[in-house]
Amino acid sequence: MRGIYVFSDLSLHERLQKALAELNLQQPTEVQQQAIPKALDGRDLLISAETGSGKTAAYLLPSLHRFLATDAPKSGTRGLVLLPTRELARQVFKQFKQLSAFTHLQAGLITGGDDFKYQRSIFRKNPELIIATPGRMLEHIKRNSCDLSDLEVLVLDEADRMLDLGFAEDVLAIAENCRAERQTLLLSATLKTKGLMQVVDRVLRDPEELILSGARDQHGNICQQIVLADDRTHKERLLYRLLEKEQYNKVIVFTNTKAQAERLGGAIRYRRHRAGVLQGDMTQDERNKVMDWMRRGNINILVATDVAARGLDISGVDLVINFDMARSGDEHVHRVGRTGRAGESGLAVSLISASEWNLMASIERYLRLQFERRVVPGLEGKYKGPAKLKSSGKAAGIGKRTKGRGDKRRGESEAGAKKPKQRLRDQKSIGKRRKPSGNKPAGDQAGSGALGDGLAPFTKRR
């Protein structure tokens, strides 16, 4: 951190200071130290910081201070926070409740999966802050459920993830319906996402950049290991052994498919572990129930797809297991970021089959680190890695055939005539044909119409 401060040095409203004291939060994180003063000045900000760094409070606190400092009883919605997933929106809503506990400020939660008519009633109550996912928020805008003409602050949290999920057009459409004279804060774990800078150019006005850490620089307090596996069955045996022998408080197991998550969740529960599943086909109530179980400690193992890899803040997760390797370096960073939060140490173990080696190597190269190789005693596999490696760390493929064999054929062709092609039809038996006799009678040679010339009629023998 660049300096040692306490929240009382940040000139926040006294009611917010009281809430921070109640939460026993005294020292701001680095992103809060740098972002809050600039946000209080009304600047548009482009913030890149790691997950678990306190980004949510970095934009909530200055927004709430603004609403408290300037009373606007007759205005519409004053702040809008857009987030990529329902789980992350619920977390931000919960943190808003904590920070605004001693104020009159109200917030509304607008996400997919909830009753549309009930959400319209939330807009009619005119809360100061709306916390929403882009799809459902745009639907309300199209149906004239809300009025954003008085909006003072627009926050795009986890903007890179929103673009990955295909929300770019929705975000731009929502921004066009907001008041032009507003403050916009965009937060992202990485600024390398395709299309992100186009959104920045269209939504923000002369933003100040706060690049505190990129995806490659994150998670220095997390030990990252790989275990080689022969196939899926071997992976399952390795997973069960890790869950039995490793010391952990809570663990998240990541898979790439919903079907795989459901199957593994059932298999883990069958082995008498307290496990739950989180995947995209679940209803909102089911997802909420699983997350509550995990936070309360009713379960300590969560099998999840990448729907849970962004933004989820579950305290006490000290182990992450990638049953399937993440499909990109950024996704790997966000999965691993579920552990080692707020400076705590963590462990991430990835199970790697032969088909995933090159993907693992590309992620190593992207992160500029080398994963620690680990062997689980008693479950050593036959696969030991590629026989040959390229300079990039990927497996070297089989080389092209040498020219020796072809050269030999060409030499034979030049030395003699080309051998005729042998056909099966040429080898078929066509039967024996009678050879014509060499000694013919004189009459035959004269054309006297003797038998055999094919012209004279038969004559009766005397």
Descriptive account of the structure:
This protein has 16 helices and 14 strands. With 462 residues, the protein is α/β, with parallel strands linked by helices. It has 2 domains: 210 residues, P-loop containing nucleotide triphosphate hydrolases (Rossmann fold, 3-Layer(aba) Sandwich); 155 residues, P-loop containing nucleotide triphosphate hydrolases (Rossmann fold), CATH 3.40.50. Helix 2 runs parallel beside helix 3 and helix 3 crosses helix 4. The protein is elongated and about 140 Å long.
Task: Set out the fold topology.
Layout: H1 14-22, H2 30-40, E1 45-48, H3 55-69, E2 79-82, H4 86-99, E3 107-110, H5 116-124, E4 129-132, H6 134-142, E5 153-156, H7 159-164, H8 168-176, E6 183-188, H9 196-203, E7 208-211, E8 222-228, H10 232-245, E9 250-254, H11 258-270, E10 275-278, H12 284-296, E11 301-304, E12 317-322, H13 329-336, E13 346-352, H14 357-367, E14 372-373, H15 404-415, H16 442-446
Parallel strand pairs: 1-6, 1-7, 2-4, 2-5, 3-4, 5-6, 8-13, 8-14, 9-11, 9-12, 10-11, 12-13
Helix pairs in contact: 2-3, 3-4, 6-8
What's the CATH class label of the largest domain?
Alpha Beta
**CATH superfamily label of the largest domain:** P-loop containing nucleotide triphosphate hydrolases
SS-based class = alpha/beta
Order of strands, widest sheet: 3-4-2-5-6-1-7
Order of helices and strands: HHEHEHEHEHEHHEHEEHEHEHEEHEHEHH
Q: Characterize the largest beta sheet: strand count, sense, and whether it forms a barrel.
A: 7 strands, parallel
Tell me roughly what share of residues is in helical segments: 25-40%
Helix count, DSSP H or I runs of 4 or more residues: 16
- Named at the architecture level, the CATH assignment of the largest domain is 3-Layer(aba) Sandwich
Number of strands: 14
Count of domain modules:
2
Q: How far is the first residue's CA from the last residue's CA?
A: 136 Å
> The CATH topology of the largest domain is what?
Rossmann fold
Oligomer status: single chain
User: What portion of the residues fall into strands of 2 or more residues?
Assistant: 5-15%
Radius of gyration: 37 Å
Average pLDDT: 84
Characterize the overall form.
elongated
Q: Extract low-pLDDT stretches.
A: 408-414, 443-450
